[in-house]
Every structure is written in C-alpha cells, then in structure tokens.
Amino acid sequence: MSIVIHSDSQSKELKDFILESLADAEYEIEDLSVNSKATNIAEITLEVTKYVQEHEGTKAIVIDKYGIAPFNFANKQKNIIAATVSDEQSAKMTHRHNNTNVIVLGSEVVGKLNALNCVKAFLKAGYDAGRHQIRVDMLNSLC
C-alpha cells in the first residue's frame, strides 16, 4: 500500500514521529514535505490530494495544528474523500464506510500515541463497499 504524508511546519514533530513509528511496517510511505514548495496548508493539502488523484489506491495523511482547513480543502477536490479524525474507531470506520483516502490530524488536538493509533487503524481498515458504495459514488460526483 502506498501512503503519503505531509504537514505544516508547526506539525512537523508529529509527522516525524509517525514516520519513525511506521518505519518498520510493510507500508511504502512517502514524505511529500521533503521536496515540497508549499508555503501554507492550502498548498500542502493540494499537493497531497493531487498525488492521491494521480496514484490510485494511495492513502494520505495531512497534519496541521487543528485539522480543519485541510479537511475543507481536501473535500473540494475530485475523487478525494477526507475525514478529520481524533480517535481510532473514527479513523477505521471512515475508511470502511466512506472509502476515505485522506485523513487529517490536528497536532494540537491529538497526542502522539493517539495520532499513531489513528493512522494505524486507518491504514489497516478495508473498504466494506456494498451498501456504502452508493454514498461513496454520491460523494465523488459532487466535485
């Protein structure tokens, strides 16, 4: 599974913690901030969503201070379904029921271990499809 992660400068510590914690996992993780020219959270979010749009099946993590702006920007992009999460159950269920491909974390909202557990739950979750596909199709048709 391909995963991309990006954060604003205020959330770099949490992003780095997640990257270090997942280093031994079987995921292919790309830190988009390494070569990024983005200077604000809107540009950061657009870089992430563009990557997800161009690489089908990729899951993404965006981190900023409160997790609100990236959620709003991401959900305005075609074929992007984003959720701001702060607990494991929400992180898991948003992918299972909504086929969410981007989660947003607020570094001032969630602690390091909680954020890591949210990421792990999101990455492990499969998509249930079935009756949920109607909603996913509707969400994807909005942009």
From TrEMBL:
<dbReference type="Pfam" id="PF02502">
    <property type="entry name" value="LacAB_rpiB"/>
</dbReference>
<protein>
    <recommendedName>
        <fullName>Galactose-6-phosphate isomerase</fullName>
    </recommendedName>
</protein>
<dbReference type="InterPro" id="IPR036569">
    <property type="entry name" value="RpiB_LacA_LacB_sf"/>
</dbReference>
<dbReference type="InterPro" id="IPR003500">
    <property type="entry name" value="RpiB_LacA_LacB"/>
</dbReference>
<comment type="similarity">
    <text>Belongs to the LacAB/RpiB family.</text>
</comment>
